[in-house]
């Protein structure tokens, strides 16, 4: 064995203790760490030949890279709908690497742990047992899997197998949506359907929710040809929700696959005040749910759900003698693009086991309260205007002057990170409150930093 490997193996308890201490210091220092940094560059080191051992590697990381890491795990990082990582989920993530399970087949209890966690998540957001699910990397891959199943469903309706014959066998594919997330376009590109196959449907005035009457007209115009409809349970700019039950009811008249992007909005089901927003989610044919957003587990973790596991297997099955054929309860490598996959479910299992549905409901409701508080404070700054009501956990607002410059000025305070957007042609800023730690004191610091960045007097 290489001498440095041998040394670190013999010193493994010390290696883990040093890592624990380093992580504790990093987490304890989140309030002092800049929430975000401007663009940085670092000259690359040459490939190590002999290596420096763990102690040397940790020292180099601490010197070269760690100072430039953002405080994205903390309570004032409001970009990209990013959650943090609850204490139990951090422990679960560490143990994921410790046990290093390839969570694809039944040679260990890892697969059963994932299946249990998926059942919990299904119940958490109000889906019935008709939906089965599997862990994937994030919302993009969740929608990719859902839309891949939808693509196979189109083939079933037209009497072809896309899995066998390719997407060209479908001919023209129509995808309809009111305000699709950019990841849906990416998934369509990867699936060979194409970004241009998306047809935007009018939304309700002053909303991002699809106009169901207009959607009906678009479906009627297809002359009975099957289509894909992508509905939203929480848009990224204003957390608007389509009327899922009304959209699903159109299937009584027209053939279409209903995919619902509930990446973070699905967790509205946890709040009694907001659960009505996801009414009808269980009627979807496929659902996207992203866990490293509002469930607050570490990157990367998401789940996809579908009513048609048989079509999912048709798309993703891996035929090899050493893998066997799919059964009624297929191994997980028959369900997603990856043959090899870490046990992503363990971090979520730990967090759900530690804090339960009530603990995660508390996170959702506190974040909603924080977003409402921030929205109200921002309206006191001259020239700042909310572009939509604070429906859930995102504040979308316009500022005087250049929005891009405002984003950079806010970032440069080191106190808060926001992302820019464009809403109905208006350049704007988005503040997405998704972290389990965010409270009223954080909101006050966020508000003060934005006010200072905009040059507004206290």
From TrEMBL:
Residue(s) carrying N6-(pyridoxal phosphate)lysine: 293
One Pfam short name: Pyridoxal_deC
Molecular functions (GO terms): aromatic-L-amino-acid decarboxylase activity; pyridoxal phosphate binding
Annotated signal peptide: none
Gene3D superfamilies, alphabetized: Aspartate Aminotransferase, domain 1, Type I PLP-dependent aspartate aminotransferase-like (Major domain)
Biological processes per GO annotation: carboxylic acid metabolic process
Cofactor: pyridoxal 5'-phosphate
Protein name: Glutamate/tyrosine decarboxylase-like PLP-dependent enzyme
Organism: Umezawaea tangerina
